[in-house]
Protein 1
Amino acid sequence: MERFAKIALESLNSALKVPIQLTDLEIPPDPQLGDFALPCFKLAQSFQKSPNQVAQLLCSKIQDQVTDEILVSTQGPYLNFTVRPQKVLSSLLKDILLGPERGHYGSLPKNSRGKWVIEYGSPNVAKPLNIYHLRTTVLGASLDRVARYRGYEVSSINHLGDWGKQYGMLAVAFERYHKTVEDSLSLTDLVELYVKINSDAEKDPTIEIQAKQAFLDLEKEEPKITQIWKKCIEISLQGFRHSYQRLNIHFDYIWGESHYKNQLIPLIENLKTQGILVQSEGAWIVPLVDENNKELTPCILQKNDGGTLYATRDIAAALYRHKQFAFDRMTYVVGADQKLHFKQIFGVLKKMGVPWVKDCEHIPTGLYRFKDAKMSTRKGNFVTLEEVLALAKQKVITLMQDRGHTSPPAQSQSSFEEIAEKIAIGAIVFHDLHNDPARDVEFDIERVVDFEGETGPYLQYAHTRCLSILRKASTTSQSQESIEFSLSLISLLNSPSELQLIKTLGQFPLHLERTLRFSKASQLAHFLIEVTRSFGVFYRQCQVLGHSTQLTQARLMLVEATRRVLAQGLTLLGVPLPEWM
Ligand code: ARG
């Protein structure tokens, strides 16, 4: 479909003064209206006509150019494009099964587009990952995968919160409670130490003073404190790695806040000389205004005791990343509670006159709300990610047992446990991603792991169903290898549900592109639901196996094409593919 959309786009752009992009085309909710559409609201002003008139005008202008392959029509303010059925059939299925990307339909050549830095995850160390981190982690990781697939040169960064006074506090705790770096401590032990020292600090004010001193020593790289700090990071990373592995998350760079520690003072000096930093009540701040010239909370970069802050490190990090990667786009996938923080960071960069600040964006993510009584009694931030994964896995195991699936089929390579893990991860990840990233998510475990409805397991199941049809076919000698050679049979696929399924599959590249444009994995997630729905209609209406060899063969191609798009799309989202369910 992308090819056809590009044809439409080209002819549209020849008729427009200001060019539009591929992602300005929308996919109509009702396929009857067309395969893609251009909403004309935004164009109305430059044409000085109503959106409906613009649609009609454009329609008459470009009709002749695209008429061979695409039908153009209007529906109110929308210009609709419908690809002619015979064209869809012959080219789309061929693209999916035999395209130049060889099994990676919709991908673009490696590093053929810009450089993109994507920051996600970024938890604070010395605390377990909590459910709140899931959102930024899985959204960031899916954008990362889709961007690479679509030809961007991506550098992914985990900006760990590993610097600040709290590590001074932990060092004091080590001293006070006689812990050493040789002790084998877990992440839970660290949390306990931290909670204990903080509650002791309420009674004993000297602890605060000691912690401040300890952090100053850490900044000076005093060996003993540095060792303790390193130990805390090591313990935390071990814990994080386990969860990242389960979620199939890999970062190119784990550069925590401490990575920039030696760049902070030179940065501050520089900003002082330039007059960007001004003194206010002993601290050094950057006064800011927002896009409407309204005063914004100033950004403090140095406290009155000379210490630096979270924001100071973010400015240093942004400058460093641009120096390293000369990126074309930098995305921070971080919770919505940090909106102001990023406004300030971008504001400071703007004041510094860096031209690339326009290429930086903060994608805010919402919170989790729990329906489950046990979980809801605690604040969202205190529910750990591992707890949620364990809960999901337990539910999946129960569901599978209820269905009598307690052991793998004879030919299976995966154990019951492995399958349950894949379904649980798929359920949690898909549930998160199919929601709008900016909105809060309601978490109801019953719905998340449901094998029916718009859930991860439902899509995983659709994929295994394709697999089992193909498996059955190959045992009856309709082998998968021969599928590629039967493209001459595609003209046999001419029922409406077959045509609709092919068209839907063909929209995969467009949805990938929209996912990136709006930084919303929900775009891809909803598309995959649509594929499954469309496949369901096809499967109900068109018998696949046991027909004349030729028709069966043609339909198997369609099953294989569906399987590939589902497999690719789910993998890009980070939803694993169980072999059976
Ligand atoms: N560590 C922070 C937290 O857990 C998030 C860091 C976000 N990234 C950044 N560049 N400020 O709240």
Protein 2
Amino acid sequence: MTEVHRKTVLLYEKHGKVATVTLNRPKALNALNTGVLKDLRDALVDAEADADIHVIVLTGAGDRAFCAGADIQELRDKSAIEARDWSLWVQEITSYMERVRKPILAKINGFCLGGGLELAMACDFRIATDKSLFGLPEVNLAIIPGGGGTQRLTRLIGKTKALELLMTGTRIYAEEALRLTLVNTVVPVEALDAAVEAVIKELRTKSAVTLGLLKLAVNNGLEMSLEQALYYEAECFGSALATEDSREGLKAFLDKRKAEFKGK
Ligand code: DAK
């Protein structure tokens, strides 16, 4: 069954085990304003709470952009205090994306710039068309990324290239983004749906609860010392072993049959 919630600036659909969230301002290249970000947060909260949803896909409407960044008009009109409060609120959304206990796939076709790339970097997979363009061009506006861009880009591709992209504001094509391990997969536009489906199909064979634990172990562990992170991994391992699904997975292996997971 497909459930569609139509909102002006964001589309939120559930089909089978997949929730698709579409940034829906194609005329403004899906630029992020407060309305989009509020609806995005609501959609993610709903998808996380819905036990039927296994995977979340985040994408942009139209064929030109995933998202061209924060809405420059809205940014320009903010006072210093409004900008600080907005900043904290936006950072909370991207951090929440990393805590959502379900895989989030960014499906990218076209511009993926500024705040758009910041959203994509908070996702767990980035699957892009070969015509997609990536960058953090904030320096050209005499501002800096404020939605996690300076930190997540550095963690994903390393300091040398991160500083180059941040300081020059250069846009790179998907193939270069792939080389830098900024994205997982690059395909021609006509193969994008199939590439996303292939990842979803693979993830659906896994236990949802295990995927959630893996995501927490990686994302939270990255912020700890190695010693703390290893301890945290052991705690997550303990939680994984306590699930019904792990009992089923281990037993199915010994029974030489395919496991059937329930996400519990
Ligand atoms: N905001 C608002 N409108 C945008 C936009 C944006 N970021 N990007 C494009 N648009 C609008 C254009 O104004 C234009 O609207 P109309 O003139 O038709 O009404 C329409 O989208 C089509 O764009 P163009 O006519 O410019 O199309 P082109 O093909 O010529 O160029 C482009 C495409 C992507 C190269 C160009 O639009 C462009 O350079 N856009 C701006 C890209 C950019 O600089 N992005 C970074 C924005 S700053 C923070 C969190 C996040 C951020 C900051 C703080 N905190 C939590 C504190 C993030 C900041 C940013 O993202």
